[in-house]
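User: Here's a chain of 302 residues. Predict its fold as C-alpha cells.
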Amino acid sequence: MRIVVTGGGGFIGSNLVDKLIDEGHSVTVIDKNPAYGNSRTDKIHMIQGDFGDVNLLKSCLEGVDLLFHLACTTIPKTSNENPVLDVSSNLIGTIRLLESSVHAGIKRIIFNSTGGAIYGAACPDTVYENSMTNPICSYGINKLAVEKYLGLFQHTNNLDYVVFRISNAYGPRQNPQSGVGLIAAALDSVINRRPLYVWGDGSIIRDYIYIDDITQALIMATRSDFPTGIYHASNGVGLSVNQIIEIIEKVAGTRPDVRYTYGRNFDIPKVVLDNTKLRSLGWILKFPIEKGIYETWRWMIR
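Assistant: Prediction complete.
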C-alpha cells in the first residue's frame, strides 16, 4: 500500500515507519522536523512541512491508500498555556487534513488520540472506551474533538477511521527531554547523573505501554477487515510513579536522584485503560513493564 504518516519523524512515528517498511509498504512522512529516528531514510519519502498545509497535502496525498495521523504540536503541559494555538494548529489543521483526504480518495485514517487526558479527573478504577470523557486540558479537548470530526467525516463522506487512545508510551527513541515520558526521563537521569523532578509525591498512577506493542496495534489497523472504531492501546495495569522508579532501580542498578516538587492541576490521579476490545481482535501484549524498561535501558546505554 501507499501510506502517508504525519509526524513520522517522531518517537512513535519513526518506530511505526520502520515496521511499515519491513512489510513492504511505500511510505511518505510529513513532519516539521526532517530528522528521522534511524538511518533508513533511503526507504522513505520525507517531506518537511505542516500537516495542515493544503497545498502540500494536494501534492502528496494523491493515490495514497491509507493515512496515519500522528502529528501533534502540543503536549498536555503546554496546551493550556496557549489553547488558541492548540486549536489552530491541531484541530483546524486536522480538519484541513480530513478534507484533503476525502478529495484524494484515501480509504482510511488511523489517528493517535490520548488514553489519559481525554477522560478527565473523575476516572473509574478501570477506564473503557465508552467511559465518560471530560478532559481538563486543551490537549485532551482537541484530541476528543478530532475523534468527533472523524465520526462526522465518516458519516458525511464515508471516510473510514480507526482511533487508538494510547496510554503512557515509552521505549527506544523517546526524547527524555521532551517533557513527556517518565521512564525515558528517569533512565536518562541515571545515565547522566542528574536529578529527576517528579510532580507531586509520586502517587499518581498511570498505564505504561512499550512502543513495539503500540506499533503492533497500528499495523493491525492497516488491514481492511480491522473494524472501524475507538480502541485502547494500553498495558491494562496501573503503576505509580514511585513503583516505576523502583523498577528502574532494579533494572539499572541505581536509583534515580528523585526530587519531589509541587503537583499540577491537570494531572489526573489515576488512569488505567482496559484493552479487552483490542485483544479480542488478536492483539497480544508482548512487553510487560519490566521487560519493556529493560529493553529501553539497553537502547539508551548502547
